[in-house]
Amino acid sequence: MKTKKMKSGSSISRGSKKEQAAFYVMLAPFFILFFTFTILPVLTSVVLSFFHFDAVSLPTFAGLDNYLRMFVQDDVFPTALRNTLLFAIVTGPIGFMLAFVLAWMVNEFSPAIRTLLSFLFYAPALTGNVYFIWKILFSGDSYGYLNSTMMSLGLIVDPIQWLKSPSYALPIIMIVQLWLSLGITFLANISGLQNVNPELYEAGAIDGVRSRWHELWYITLPSMREILMFGCVMQIQSAFSVSAVAIELCGYPSVNNSVDTIVSLLTDVGNARYEMGYAAAISVFLFILMAVTKNLMFKLINLAGK
Amino acid sequence: MFKFKKQYFRADHLKVSHRDQYKRFTRSKAGNFFYSFFLIAFGLFSILPMIYSILTSFKPLDELLVYPPRFFVIRPTIENYTVIPSLLDNLAVPLSRYIFNSVFISVVTTVLHVVVASMGAFVLSKSNVYGKKIIFSIIQFSLLYNSYTLAIPRYLIYSYLGMIDTYWVYILPMIPSSMGVFLMKQYMDAAVPTALIEAARIDGAGTFRVFWQLVMPIVKPGWLTLTLFAFRDLWQLIEGGTVFSEELKTLPSAASTIAAGGLTRQGSAMAVTVIMMIPPILVYMISQGSVTKTMSSSGIK
Fold it and tell me: What's the CATH code, domain A67-301?
């Protein structure tokens, strides 16, 4: 295929001293602020993970206590880890693909319809409080929309406690999470598709692209590689951090800890028990989990178009 | 004054959509039907919470308190909206101050956020600055660290820098965005060929001019989208633990005093939520309206 686009990742050749200085000046505002408000706090938090710290008295050194406690003592942690991995394995890939497939489908309509459709999909992110519609839908009494519909159809006799029963709560939280996670990745994909050079499609048609699926695999996906990498990181971040949805709909702790996640546990440890050292240790562990996943996924994305 | 030659901007030649210039592979009729059906069903479901909020803001009190909650409004009233001024009368500072704070903070910070992220991304994407690969990978990984745990270290830094209870605490920490730099760098890697920049360089354009007049127009869909993300977050921003003076608080914080009024204020609280939704929706319309129109492609033949 001759449709490979021009290599654009490499840097421009070394210019004069003045040009070099300009680069440093342009990077400085971001770098200084990023270092102060992100890097320093992260490093502090990593150090704190080796201390006992209740946010009031001075930290005392704890060695590996916080980490040992996570794996040996904490009864909730194994369940939370299991749930987090389940959420990540299901909502991560599906959410990532959904955000791309929807963007790809929406992109083929005329600009006006495209703007309208993407508005519909982005609406939850603009609305703010979006959980209550799900609470009404899955409400456990006979007034809940799902229960009352199923009862009037004669499918069930007694109302089902959707959000209180472990076997229903998990899939319900997954669906709500998927629906919520569209936002950023979806819009990034929409604008990414606008940047795909139309000449590539033209060249592809001459070079032997014979179907829309060919076109998708050999032209669209490779041209979208950078934006897909962005979406991938955002999706890993949200899929491993499922928590707000579960706490809003099922409370914390949920029945049998069925939908409690690592981030829910972490928030509880910090908010209710003021054990900041332990909370930091859990964060560090979660970070390592996500970082490993990210590296694996980047290797996969690089396979597109090959 | 130096001017870029027209041929750098391929978009200028592409006034007509590429669809008109050659045939793209299109889907079958059945495929079309399936697509539209699927998209419309999914889209309608997604907009339900927004519609429910709007309907609820027009409900009279007895309909608000009815159990089970009803989706539609039967006897709509605008009372929830008309009582808002009187509910806000007894605020410690005039409402105009909250409006000023919110508008000032969101507009200034959004602009700085987008410009700083784009400049950083430009350097990371197109320069040979020492250590840029390491910096970029730190930026990516920083997105994966749970932000909840960072609250206490951040508070310590704010207080060390004397930022507590000033406007700075709204602005400075919100400017550097790992997500913004990551997004913009990916756009620049994908859409701006290095050869294009080299050509402009040979014509005598300085680094900053290349960035502002050549690169930024090409990645317009990228920064328009980033503007939306930033504005949406900043508009909803409440600094609970770091801003205490009433005259420095934002609109969402004034709005939450209405919601705190209990059950009978429920309708007005929803009305305020609906009013607060309007600016982000406007920003959405403006930014995405131009994203889907731009078709900025910058190829070199």
Answer: 1.10.3720.10
Task: Flag if B293 and A111 touch (Cβ within 8 Å).
Answer: yes
Query: What is the ipTM score, two decimals?
Result: 0.86
Tally of domains in chain B: 2
Report residue A63 CA to chain centroid gap. 32
List the 150-169 stretch of B: residues with Cβ below 8 A of A: 150, 152-154, 156-157, 161
How far apart (Å, rounded) are the C-alpha atoms in residues B158 and B173? Answer: 9
Distance from CA of B267 to the nearest CA of A (A): 14
- Cα separations (Å) of B70 from A148, B56, B63, B166? 13, 9, 8, 44
Identify whether B183 is part of a domain.
Answer: yes
Do B134 and B219 fall into the same domain? Answer: yes
In this structure, are B70 and B162 located in the same domain? no
Confirm if B277 and B295 have CB atoms less than 8 A apart.
Answer: no
CA distance A216 to A205: 12
Q: DSSP assignment of A248-301, as one string?
A: HHH-SSPGGGTT--HHHHHHHHHHTT--HHHHHHHHHHHHHHHHHHHHHHHHHH
Query: Model's pTM, two decimal places?
Result: 0.85
CA–CA distance, A22 with B205 (Å, rounded to integer) = 13
Burial class of residue B54, CB neighbours in 10 A (0-12, 13-18, 19+): middle
Contact A26 B18 (CB under 8 A): no
B11 token code pair: 């978009």
Instruction: Identify the band that residue A15 occupies on the pLDDT scale cut at 50, 70 and 90.
Output: low
Compute φ and ψ for B141, nearest 5 degrees: -70, -30
| Domain presence at residue B205 | yes
Chain A closest CA to B235's CA: distance in Å? 11
pLDDT lower than 50: segments of chain B: 1-2, 5-23, 294-301
Instruction: Please count the other Cβ atoms lying within 10 Å of the Cβ belonging to residue B33.
Output: 11
Name which of B148, B228, B300 is nearest A267 (Cβ-Cβ): B148
Dump strand ranges (E) for chain A: 51-52, 60-61
Provide the 8-state DSSP code for A153.
T
The string of pLDDT tens digits covering residues B176-201 is 989 999 999 999 998 888 888 888 88
How far away is chain A from the Cα of B92, in angstroms, using its nearest Cα? 26
- Taking the alpha carbons of A164, A165, A168, A174 in that order, is the dihedral positive or negative? positive
Q: Is the pLDDT of residue A139 over 90?
A: no
CATH number of domain containing B267? 1.10.3720.10
B1 falls within a domain = no
